[in-house]
Write a structure and sequence with these properties.
Layout: H1 4-19, E1 24-29, E2 37-43, E3 51-57, H2 72-83, E4 87-92, H3 112-127, E5 132-142, H4 144-154, E6 167-170, H5 175-179, E7 190-194, H6 203-210, E8 215-219, E9 234-236, E10 249-251, H7 255-272
Parallel strand pairs: 3-4, 3-5, 5-6, 6-7, 7-8
Antiparallel strand pairs: 1-2, 2-4, 9-10
Length: 274
C-alpha cells in the first residue's frame, strides 16, 4: 500500500523535475530601429495562473557559453525567480542579430539605449500572454544589460502595457547616463555594484545617486560579476571598455556580496510585484 507520504514525495519530485525543465523558445519583434526579430527564452511557474514577470537582460558576453549552454548566472537567477512564482524571459539581443560576445570590441551594432527597445518589446510580448499579470512586470540586467536597464527606466522606449514596476541594474555602465541629456529617468532604478569594480566603475553611479536619480547599493570590495555562482576571481584581459588603460578587469564571485544581493533583489521584487 502506498502511503500519503510516499505520494507526497512523488508529487514533489515531479514538481522539481518540471521546475528544472528546458526553457521555452519564443520570438517577438524588437522595437529597436533595426526591426530585428528577437529570440527569447522563457521559464514560468507550474501553476499556470497569471503571474508577475521579470525581463532579464544579458551582459556583453551574451546568454550562452561557447558550448551553447545558458550561462550559470542566468540559470541560477532564473531558478530563483521561477521558484518565487515569477515568469522570467531572457531576450537574446545578440544572438538574434547574429552576434556573439561583444566584451572585447568597441564596434557594437546595438547599444544599451537601443537594447531598451528589446526590453520594452519583451514586456509587450509578456503582457499579451494569458499566464502573465501584465500589471506586474519588472526589468533586470547585468553589465551591458544593466546599462540597458538604466535606459529602460530613462530612455525613449516605454512598455505599451504600462510602466515597469521596478528596475534592477547589476554593475551597469553609468557614465553615459550620467553625461547624457537624453537619459531622463521616469522613476529611480536600483543599481547594485561592487566598490572594487574596474570594468564598470562605481563612481558615475555614485554621481547618479547623488542626483537622486538611482537607488545605489554598493558592496565593499566586490568586483564585476560578484553575483555569479562559484566563479573564481580572476583578471580578464582585453575588455574594450574599462577603468584600466590596459583592458585588464577583475571578475568573479564575492560570496558575501552575492548572498546580500540575492536577498536584496528578492526583497525588491517581492515588494514591487506583490
Amino acid at each position: 500500500m502506498i502511503g500519503k507520504f510516499t505520494i507526497a514525495l512523488a508529487v514533489l519530485g515531479l514538481l522539481a523535475t518540471q521546475a528544472a525543465a528546458d526553457y521555452e523558445d519564443v520570438t517577438f519583434p524588437s522595437r529597436a530601429s533595426d526591426g530585428a526579430t528577437l529570440q527569447g527564452y522563457l521559464r514560468r511557474p507550474l501553476h499556470g495562473k497569471p503571474a508577475p514577470a521579470v525581463v532579464a537582460l544579458h551582459g556583453c558576453g551574451g546568454l550562452f557559453t561557447k558550448k551553447g549552454d545558458m550561462l550559470r548566472r542566468h540559470d541560477d537567477w532564473a531558478e530563483r525567480f521561477v521558484m518565487a512564482g515569477y515568469v522570467v524571459l531572457f531576450p537574446d539581443s545578440f544572438g538574434s542579430r547574429g552576434m556573439d560576445s561583444i566584451c572585447n570590441t568597441r564596434e557594437r551594432r546595438i547599444v544599451p539605449r537601443e537594447r531598451a527597445a528589446d526590453a520594452a518589446a519583451a514586456d509587450d510580448w509578456l503582457a499579451a500572454q494569458p499566464f502573465v499579470d501584465k500589471t506586474r512586470i519588472a526589468v533586470l540586467g547585468w553589465s551591458n544589460g544593466g546599462s540597458s536597464v538604466l535606459w529602460a527606466a530613462g530612455g525613449a522606449y516605454k512598455p505599451e502595457a504600462g510602466e515597469w514596476r521596478t528596475a534592477i541594474a547589476f554593475y551597469p555602465g553609468c557614465r553615459v547616463p550620467a553625461e547624457s541629456a537624453k537619459w531622463m529617468p521616469r522613476f529611480k532604478p536600483y543599481v547594485l555594484i561592487g566598490s572594487a569594480d574596474n570594468w564598470t566603475p562605481p563612481a558615475p553611479c555614485r554621481t547618479l545617486a547623488e542626483r537622486d536619480a538611482v537607488r545605489l547599493i554598493e558592496y565593499p570590495g566586490a568586483v564585476h560579476g560578484f553575483d555569479a555562482p562559484n566563479t573564481p576571481r580572476r583578471t580578464r584581459p582585453g575588455a574594450a571598455y574599462s577603468a584600466t588603460a590596459d583592458g585588464n578587469v577583475e571578475v568573479g564571485t564575492d560570496a558575501k556580496a552575492r548572498t546580500a544581493a540575492i536577498k536584496e533583489v528578492m526583497t525588491i521584487l517581492a515588494e514591487a510585484l506583490r
